[in-house]
Amino acid sequence: MDTALLNPAIQAFIDDTIGVNISKLALQKNPFPESNWIAVLSQIEAKTKAKNKLPTWFATKNIIYPSKISIEQTSSETTASYKASIVSGKSLIDLTGGFGVDDYYFAKKIEKVSHCEINPVLSTIVQHNFKQLNIPNITCHSADSMDTLKALKTTWNWIYIDPSRRNDSKGKVFMLKDCLPNVPENLAFYFTNSNAILIKTAPLLDISAGLSELQHVKTIHIVAIENEVKELLWELHKGYSNNISIKTINILKDKTEKFDFILNEESKFINFSLPQKYLYEPNSAIMKSGGFDEVSLFYNVNKLHKHSHLYTSNNLVSFPGRVFVIEKTVPYNKTEMKNYLEKSQANITIRNFPDSVESIRKKWKIKDGGKNYCFFTTDSNNHKIVLICTKII
C-alpha cells in the first residue's frame, strides 16, 4: 500500500479534483513530485467511481482505493446490504474478500467476519480501510482461501464466495467450474467447514446451468437495481434437497419490488387473451428468473402469448414492473403502420417479434422518445401486432 497517498495535501487534492477529466489532469505537472503521479490520478478516478456506488467509503477520510476496474467490479453498498439480510449467526468467512464492501455489511449482522484476499497489497488496503470505517470485528487474511480454511480449523455459520471468471474462460459459456475458486469442485470441502454457503455470481450465469453444477441449493436471489440485474445469490444449505425458492428483488429509488415463487417442473394452467385495457411488462429480475407463468397466476393477469412475456387485464393490478394503458392495438402491416406510426416518435420495445428495434425505426422512420410506448409483439392468435400505449407506472 502506498502510504504517501495519505499525505493530507494529497488527500485534499484528490477531494478537490473528483470528477475532473483524468486525461487532462495527466497532462499537468505533478504537484507532488515526491509521490507517484499515476497513483494519485488512479485514486481520483477510483474515488469518483465510488461516489454513488460506495457513498460510505466516499464520505470517509483517508480511504485508499484500488484500481478503477476493482471499484467497477465490487458489490455496491445497495446489493451488499441486501446480502447481509440473508445471513445470520456469529461467524462468517469470505473466501474472495476483494475490496471488502460485502464484509462491511456482513459485519453489521455477524459478530466475527474473516476477509480472505490472496493479493497482499489489496489485503493491506482493505485492512487499513476497515480501521478508517471503524469496523473492529473483521479479520483480514492474506493467503489462498483454501489454505486459510484449513489453517483456521473453524466451523463457520456461513461461507461467502464471489468466484471470478478465469482469463482463459472468455468466449466460453459461463460455468462456475470456469471460475476461481472452482466452487463445484470444492463444494464438499466447504461443507466440512460450514452448513451454509452463499455464492454470488454475475447475471450472465444461466440459472439452469448453475443448478446443474451446484448441490443443496435452497434459494436463489435475483437482485436488480433500477431494473438492471446486478447479481445472482445462491443460498446453499448442507443436506438440503427439497424445492428451490426463487426470490426476485428490484430495488428502485422509491420502492422495492419483490416477487417470490417455488421452482418446479409442474405444468400450470395459464390464461391467454388478446390485449385488454392494461399491459404489464415484468421487471428485469423476474425476466431473469423465468417465472413467467407464476407471475400470471399470482397477479391474475393473462399472457399475450406463450413466448411474449407480456401480460394484460381489464382491471388495474399492482404489478412488479412497468404498467401501461393500451390506447390502440394495431395489426403489423404496411397500411396500419403508415396510418399510425410511420414518421412518428415513440419508445419501442420488442417481445417475441422477428424485427429488431433498429430495423423497425429505420423501416418506418420512427424517432426515439416521446410519450407513446409501442410494443411490437405476437398475440395469442400468433398475429404480429403493435400495442400503442401510455405509461402509467
Keywords:
single chain, alpha/beta, Arc Repressor Mutant, subunit A, 3 domains, seven-stranded mixed beta sheet
Summarize the structure in words:
By secondary structure, the chain is α/β, with parallel strands linked by helices. The chain folds into three domains: 3-72, Arc Repressor Mutant, subunit A; 89-262, Vaccinia Virus protein VP39 (Rossmann fold), CATH 3.40.50; 278-391. The protein contains 15 helices and 18 strands. It has helices spanning 8-16, 22-26, 37-53, 55-59, 68-73, 77-84, 101-106, 120-132, 145-152, 183-190, 207-213, 284-289, 292-299, 334-340, 357-364, and strands at 91-94, 112-116, 138-141, 158-161, 164-165, 179-180, 196-201, 217-225, 228-237, 244-251, 256-263, 278-282, 302-303, 311-313, 321-331, 345-350, 367-378, 384-391. The strands form three sheets. The chain has a nine-stranded mixed sheet with strand order 3-2-1-4-7-9-8-10-11. A seven-stranded mixed sheet has the order 13-14-12-15-18-17-16. The longest helix has 17 residues, at 37-53. The radius of gyration is 25 Å and the shape is globular. Residues 278-320 form the PG-1098 ferredoxin-like domain. Pfam families: PG_1098_Fer, Thump_like.
